[in-house]
Fold:
Amino acid sequence: MNKRFLRWISVILPVIFLVTILGIVVYTSSGKISLISILTALVVIFLGVIVFSNWIFSFIDLREAEISRRASQLEALNTASQALTTELDLGLVLQKVVDLSRELVRSRYGALGVLDQSGKHFEQFLTSGISEEESKHISGPPYGKGLLSTMLQNEETLLIDDLAAYYSHLDFPKNHPEVNRLLGVPIKTKGKVIGNLYLAEKLSQTDSEEIVPFTGDDQKILEMFAIQAAIAIENARLYRQIQQLAVLEERQRFGMDLHDGVIQSLYAVGLMLENIQRRVDKDTGMSREGISKAITSLNNVISDIRNYILDLRPQHFQGRNIVQGIEELARALRANTFMDVNVEMNTIDPGQLSPEQTVEVLHIAQEALVNVQKHARASVVDVNLHFENGDLEMEIVDDGISITPERIENPSGNGLRNMQERAALLHGEIDIAPRSQGGTEVTLRVPIDDLDSR
Structure:
């Protein structure tokens, strides 16, 4: 049933009803009412019904137009909000916010001021609707004083139809486009204002050159968009923080691997060459063999550095299980020093550790043994790996110079810190302490359940 049919029904039915009533009145009055009076009454009734019908349907038309307009605004708001969610780069999100808000409310100019940590000044000010050529001639973005400071202080929406009358001193930069109508809303997240969204010079729906006042509906739709903008900005900021944390973690991993792998390998090569230098005159054959080993070690270091450049894991310890890796470290220490290196790990099942976990444990063992070689002046080193109470335990004990509590609390290098961080990656604990009879004891405990579940 369409509106035209309803319009006729609203006229015809009341007329029929009133004519019927009028006929009954004439019939019961025994013809005392004149025909002219009856016709006049009918005309008046008919005109009244038409006027009433038109009034009712004009009201209905207005309501339908209002509903259609609001539906269009909500659809535009939904489209703009969806467009924001497709982007995670903070810079692009900020520019999209100001571009989409200008399209949403149909205004000539738009701007977004992003506040600094103090919340008193703008650290970024993005615009929309101003050409690159116009931007070149503008002296600079606003700092957050004068008119714009009003919103910063009150944290409320600002709707002005006549800027010149509202504010005596307009603090627009030099060569800024002429602006006389302004709508500004704050962008809030977690109860804190993070920026202000400004629209200027609303355009007519029928004439793109005609400037009309902003309406209360414009204010409502922009305030709703500001809520979506705040969510998008916060998501983009969190995404940027996650990226920065990932970069920092990767740098930390590179630093640990460089220190525990490449640098330690270079240090070992240096010790080998020092030993060869002392023996070169006495034992040429052994010196030649030592130089060959040093060259092989340097080639391995070069391979590791190349892998870092290509963003790959270093080759050191790759492909070795825990037993093979510990034995290799022990052989290297025996070859480069005069220490007795005793290894006990008969109860260890290498299959209980993944390759990644094995590398972490071996790096901890390597750092502990290198510290003994560099600082302890020890004659005996004991390395013991075993399972106890559901934990993997590794003990490295020497009989040399004890580590001091000060060095444990405030290490001068990265070695001790790297050992602690690698233990944390394994969900384990590491204890480094001096022995009462001299020397240092390093104890690593890693829960087997955690290893199996990772």
Remarks:
- The longest helix spans residues 216-279.
- The CA atoms of residues 43 and 135 lie 68 Å apart.
- The radius of gyration is 42 Å.
- The chain has three domains: 3-82, 87-242, 317-454.
